[in-house]
Structures
1.
Amino acid sequence: MAKFEEIGTASIPGQGTQLRLLQRNDEFSIRIAGAPGDLMNTRLHGSEDALADLACERIADRPGARVLVGGLGMGFTLAAALAALGEDAEVVVAELVPGVVEWNRGPLGAAAGYPLDDPRTRVALGDVGELLRGEPGGFDAIMLDVDNGPEGLTRRENDWLYSPQGLSAAQEALRPDGVLAVWSAGQDPAFTERLRRVGLLVEEVTVRAHRPGKGAKHRIWLAS
């Protein structure tokens, strides 16, 4: 079997850490420099698809639906959101690392069907937390796939997103009857309770990393 070859690196702003983009035939992997294992892999994106599917099915019939994807990653959540929404929708994708956007416009883009080229997509470079604070009542759905979930952070500043303050900001950024969807690599009962304490109704869904029904079990919270 062919080996992965590094085809790009990108610095995480304010952290001094680099992401690595690797390719093996038509498979891509994003890894954190110096850390073992994949952060993301194009073979395993079933739960990223499900994050968008579960959130968007609740608001897809709204005219002019506007949604936020927190974290571009490999583009699969963005692509699934675009597939679920109408032609008059807008999908804002917030990505902290400029290099990740460049990869999705270049060699990585084909894996998810080049969703950045869709005219309904708007890229917001920077911290998704700042975007939440700056757009009260701005979104019908918010999908957060940042790091590995509430307890799997690779960037300390992201802890705010999962704090009561961050969850309250997300709640205020939702339009009436909007939905907040949060992806995680595993269960987190404390986070479920945190969502409830800020006044959100919570549903937890277990999804698989690889469809259909294969791979690790990941968790998605749907809060409204």
2.
Amino acid sequence: MPPDFDAAFRDRLADLFAWRRDVRRFRGDPVDETVLSTCLALASLAPSVGNSQPWRFVRVADRSRRAAVVESFARCNIAACASYADERRDLYASLKLEGLREAPVHLAVFCDEATETGYGLGRETMPEMLRYSAVTAVHTFWLAARAHGLGVGWVSILEPEEVTRLVDVPAAWRLVAYLCVGHPVEEHRDPELVRHGWQGPSPISARLTER
């Protein structure tokens, strides 16, 4: 018999979705290894095209590699800041956009585009579904981490090729996400970019269009 997902559970699930936030401010205390393993195991329950399960999580623990990732962010961040003008550039420069130095856990998430699992089912016409499948694993991990009291920050202001080289993974792996994981310094329900004035609040909408 399937479990009974009653109204109380659905309310709690809605809370989990609402409190899943991109975290940039982490405490320095370590993450419990059992909790981290549990969250990674739950991530493996994510849907994937043809049951290919193409996600590959790589824990980046080496200090020199982590320092090089920070340097990559710094280069990209300078370039991104320069792409704005006047007040918007100043506001961008004031934002904290990563927790790379503080987060106790770094996870580089790749899509294995050469995987034979699933025998290519569902990918012939939309090969990008492999990467989309890896993204579902990232989101599943994120929700699991939040449910265990951890914060996750997704850092995209990086050089994908450089990070791939630094981590030294197979050539067929493509970087999908670089995650900072740890205990958050503070908890907020609203997005940080809204809270710090980068953009206004967006209405909750499924953005459903009929044709």
